[in-house]
Amino acid sequence: MPAVLSGALAALFVGSLTNTIVGIALPTIAGELGGQAQVPWVASAALLTMTVATPLWGKAADRRGPRDLLLAALGVFVAGSLLAGCAPTMGLLLAGRAVQGAGAGGILALTNALVAGLVPARERGLYTGWFGVSFGTASVAGPLVGGLLVGAPGLGWRWCFLGVIPVALAAAALVRLAPARVPAVARGGVDLLGGVLLTVGASGAVVLLSAGGRAWPWPSWPTAVLAATVLAATVAGVLYERRAADPILPPRLFRHRGLTVACATSFLVGAVMFGGVIYLPQYLQVVRGHDATAAGLLMLPQVGTMIVASAVSGRLISRTGRWKVFPVVGCALVTAGAVLLSPLAPDTPGWWLAGAMAVLGVGTGLTQQVLVLVAQNAVGPTDVGTAGAAATFSRTLGGAVGVAAFGAMLSARLRAGIPPDQDPGELLGTPEKVAALPAHLADTVRATYTAGLSSVFLLAVPLAMAALVAVLLVREDPLGGGADS
């Protein structure tokens, strides 16, 4: 069991690392491969495919068992990493990132399902804490490792993708030691149409928020067509899943309040969490002038506390069997962290910034992985994979929607604050690039970016408060007690 757990943790680490390691390398990638307008999609492509793939992998685990599917997901991840690392053009790089994200979605869903099938729910809290540690470590290691690889002689940005391959292969060798357990429950046919509708609805929503106001204006026919497609796919998907023989996300599961609340809370907290992880490092570089490595180190108050809080909460849940206090306190701290970060300014004292990031980190550490455990505990044993994947899907979708919506807000604020003859995409970049601008323009960029980020955290406050209300309303069923009603 320790070897299998180590493999699952290593797999989760590389699957999570793919979201954070690439951000530092984007300016260098744009300089080598060109396609400045496509650079944001280097990060978004993996997040998008990860979001839509997660529930598909989770459903497959309930049909075929998690071990072999986790090995397959690691194989997909390795293939995507190899393609991205060797890509000679921006188009192939985006394709590699999309494949990499599809594999990472499986890793995030199936590591939880693998452990859920090996240990009782009461003991699962301990492993959930370690999963939070792995996720948090990947969050802080991404900017640090990415910055070191980009600047290392003889390596460069391609090793942000190639460097994870040995870790993924080692993880696969350890996961292979787990017993192969195939559910004996008879299932209907594969829900292909449900999968297509889910993919169109989720991916369309992310693309709409990412491209609206950037690739085309909000009041335009592409926006209207895409919004109508997303709405139609979502409605059709819900109606179809209600009568499918074996749906991807069975609507019957959402009659369990624990699962519904876990998914809703994961979505809301995921949006706030990813907003902090993605945009605070940019603030540290664009506004405060720190290099990539220093920015990664300065994220330690948020990510370090996230790691500690996740490990401690997991151990306490395993010891006491009580879980509700952790997401309640966590959501309250996430709300407080967003409030503390909302008056952000270019000259915000370092101690205030570090303290606010620490509060946000403790809150997310107490919340995110616990919600996966809550979702799994709310359903029967034959639906554990689907329930865990639903919570993970909700977190990833919340992160994707949050990053897209917050990014659109930042972009709109930048366009309104800088001279009309300037392109925001050309002004933002490395600290050296911002410092090389004329002094008045550099000051304008820093002030406008900070004002936009302040608005982002102000918007995050009601989202975090809604998550807190949702958690307060859920009943605390004992771990291992089966499905709730």
Could you characterize the architecture of this molecule?
By secondary structure, this protein is mainly alpha-helical. The chain has a single domain (2-179, 246-473), classed as MFS general substrate transporter like domains (Growth Hormone, Chain: A). The chain has 19 helices and no strands. α1 packs antiparallel against α5, α1 (2-20) packs across α6 (121-151) and α11 runs antiparallel to α15 (350-377). It is globular and about 65 Å long. The relative contact order is 0.14. Residues 481-485 have low confidence and may be disordered.
| Fraction of residues in β-strands | under 5%
Q: Regions with pLDDT < 50 over 5+ consecutive residues?
A: 481-485
Mean pLDDT: 81
How big is the Rg? Answer: 21 Å
Number of E-type strands: 0
Secondary-structure arrangement, i.e. CATH architecture: Up-down Bundle
In whole angstroms, the N-to-C terminal distance is 32 Å
Overall, the morphology is globular
Describe the largest sheet. Answer: none
CATH superfamily: MFS general substrate transporter like domains
Number of helices: 19
> Briefly, what CATH class?
Mainly Alpha
- Can you tell me the number of structural domains? 1
Structural class: mainly alpha
- Examine the coordinates and then state which fold CATH places here, giving the name of the CATH topology: Growth Hormone, Chain: A
Q: What share of residues is helical?
A: over 70%
Write the element-wise H/E pattern from the N-terminal end onward. HHHHHHHHHHHHHHHHHHH
